[in-house]
Amino acid sequence: MSSSTDHFAVLGVSETATAEDIKAAYFRLAKEYHPDANKAPGAAERFRLIAASYEVLKDNEKRANYLMEKNGVATGEEWLRRDGRRRNNYSDVSGDFHRASEKMKAEHRMKFKFMGMFERLIHPRTLFVLVPTGVFTYWVLTSTFAAIKVDYSSAKPTVPTVAAWKNAKTNRWEEPAPWDPDYKAYIATTPLQQVDRTIVHAARR
Questions:
Q1: Dihedral sign (CA 76, 77, 78, 80)
Q2: Which residues of 107-146 are buried (b: 16+ CB within 10 A; e: fewer)?
Q3: Is the pLDDT score of 122 beyond 80?
Q4: DSSP secondary structure string, 104-157?
Q5: In terms of pTM, does the model score above 0.70?
Q6: Which run of H or E residues covers position 161?
Q7: 3-state class (DSSP) for residue 82
Q8: How far is the C-alpha of 184 from the C-alpha of 92, rounded, in Å?
Q9: CATH of the domain at 16
Q10: Bridge-partner residues for 43, per DSSP?
Q11: Which range marks the domain in which residue 51 is found?
Q12: pLDDT tens-digit profile of 142-158?
């Protein structure tokens, strides 16, 4: 039997026919063209075609594979090896999907969707855009953060200071003492200076 035989046409049913419709059509045609009942030329060949078509359409798996082939979609190992190559090209997969019957689309919709997404992701044109864009974005961000980065390791803590004068007799920093003659002599020629408070306090203890 030729691979181009339309099994649905042979039995006179549609592609959406139920198992009961196919069975009823087969028995009706088999009774009409059976060689024991029909001696007309070509009746035996016609009966053979009817039996072969029923053999395909009565089995759900065979029917599904036949529908895929009939609509231009590869099946089984051909799905992975059409024309000697794997069917992982998105254009091929997408074309197969659009040629498939509505039933096959419903059964394999998610498979086609994920294959299409993966194909787009790893496509050379996508990588050619994403990789340079990612590198450029990383460079811009690192440069920006480096420019505004504060070096806290070199920052010096603020030290509380107090105005003080250096007593020549004790050689220590002391707070202003307006009653002290030495202070009066010092302030007459030298202004007070901001000195670490801890030093001034230590000098007074």
A1: positive
A2: ebeeebeebeeebeeeeeeeeeeeeeeeeeeeeeeeeeee
A3: no
A4: HHHHHHHHHHHHHHHHHHH-HHHHHHHHHHHHHHHHHHHHHHHHH---TTSPPP
A5: no
A6: strand 161-167
A7: strand
A8: 101
A9: 1.10.287.110
A10: none
A11: 1-58
A12: 878 776 765 555 556 67
